[in-house]
């Protein structure tokens, strides 16, 4: 009985030594978009020959894993717009990602080709990337598309009007928004700024700040200028009137271009062939169709 137990212990120990326990080690601190990142594949249980191990990345669009070496590196550089470089230095397997972007977060894994384990790959590792796009300020209540088409920089409003502005951005985490006015010490913790019955003193420079809730160094700002016009100012002098005027001009130009293209296409389709030689026949000087001539020959005029 003891002999069987000893054989079992030896067999389990042998299997443990021959099995690779792979892990992907990555950065523990927050990673901002545009930084360089290095991942390392490590074997936690045995001394594995890393010449038989390679890095892979999962493609969410192709629904498969890709090996990040040789021609696969070229594929990712051209199709995923970021640079990856697999390095083997002194028995270590490293993956270097230059100027990492939000779409290159992974997941990644390392795989052993000669491992005796049924599962010869590491757990998938995803790089947490923090990013924030530029802040846009627009009139509140607009749709998703029109808000970016109507982003304001210099806002002109009439005395007594109501103004409600909203700032927005795209980020890895929902940001915290703050409004502030230049020359004053108040701070509004909101992404919306509402001014009712605008007065002359309401004019000035306003700044909307968007800050990441976990990475405080990640912040974007947008400053706009509000000018208060007299109450009897013309409608086209305000920012809203100017936007309406520009949209109307753009629609008119588009309509003219469309009508011109339509008329040209119709004219081209209704006009017959200009020069169809297959329907012509030669006219001889001695024939009835020709003009009177004193010279008689058989040479065609055309």
Topology, element by element:
Elements lengths: L1 H17 L3 E4 L5 E2 L4 E7 L9 E7 L4 E4 L3 H9 L3 E7 L2 E7 L9 E5 L16 E2 L5 E4 L6 H4 L4 E5 L4 E6 L7 E6 L5 E2 L3 E4 L8 E8 L7 E11 L9 H32 L32
Parallel strand pairs: 2-9, 11-17
Antiparallel strand pairs: 1-3, 3-7, 4-5, 4-8, 6-7, 10-12, 12-15, 13-14, 13-16, 16-17
Protein described:
By secondary structure, the protein is α+β, with helices and mostly antiparallel strands. It has four helices and 17 strands. It has a five-stranded mixed β-sheet, with no helix packed on it. It has a four-stranded antiparallel β-sheet with strand order 1-3-7-6, with helices on one face.
Quote the distance from N terminus to C terminus: 116 Å
Based on Cα principal axes, name the global outline: flat
Tally of alpha and pi helices: 4
Strand order of the largest sheet: 11-17-16-13-14
The biggest beta sheet reads: 5 strands, mixed
Q: What radius of gyration results from the CA coordinates?
A: 37 Å
Question: What is the average of the pLDDT values?
Answer: 76
Strand content: 25-35%
Helix content: 10-25%
Order of helices and strands: HEEEEEHEEEEEHEEEEEEEH
Residue windows where pLDDT falls under 50 for at least 5 positions: 3-18
Q: State the secondary-structure class.
A: alpha+beta
Number of strands: 17
Summarize this structure briefly.
With 302 residues, the chain is α+β, with helices and mostly antiparallel strands.
Features:
302 residues, 30% strand, 21% helix, four-stranded antiparallel beta sheet, 4 helices, alpha+beta, flat, five-stranded mixed beta sheet
């Amino acid at each position: 009985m003891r002999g069987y137990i000893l054989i079992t212990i030896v067999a389990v120990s042998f299997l443990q030594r021959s099995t690779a326990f792979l892990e992907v080690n990555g950065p523990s601190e927050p990673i901002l978009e545009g930084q360089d990142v290095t991942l390392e594949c490590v074997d936690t249980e045995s001394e594995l020959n890393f010449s038989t191990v390679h890095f892979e990345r999962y493609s969410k669009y192709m629904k498969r894993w890709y090996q990040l070496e040789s021609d696969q590196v070229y594929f990712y550089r051209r199709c995923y717009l970021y640079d990856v470089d697999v390095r083997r230095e002194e028995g270590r397997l490293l993956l270097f990602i230059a100027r990492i972007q939000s779409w290159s977060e992974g997941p990644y894994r390392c795989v052993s080709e000669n491992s005796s384990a049924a599962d010869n790959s590491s757990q998938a590792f995803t790089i947490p990337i923090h990013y924030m796009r530029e802040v846009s300020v627009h009139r509140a209540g607009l749709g998703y598309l029109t808000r970016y088409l109507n982003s304001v920089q210099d806002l002109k409003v009439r005395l007594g009007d109501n103004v409600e502005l909203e700032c927005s951005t795209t980020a890895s985490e929902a940001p915290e928004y703050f409004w502030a006015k230049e020359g004053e010490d108040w701070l509004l913790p909101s992404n919306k700024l509402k001014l009712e019955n605008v007065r002359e003193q309401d004019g000035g420079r306003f700044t909307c700040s968007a800050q990441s809730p976990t990475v405080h160094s990640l912040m974007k700002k947008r400053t706009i200028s509000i000018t208060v016009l007299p109450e009897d100012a013309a409608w086209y002098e305000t920012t809203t009137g100017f936007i309406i005027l520009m949209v109307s001009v753009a629609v008119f130009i588009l309509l003219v271009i469309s009508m011109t293209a339509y008329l040209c296409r119709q004219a081209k389709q209704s006009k017959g062939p200009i020069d169809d030689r297959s329907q012509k026949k030669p006219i001889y000087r001695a024939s009835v169709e020709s003009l009177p001539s004193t010279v008689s020959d058989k040479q065609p005029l055309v």
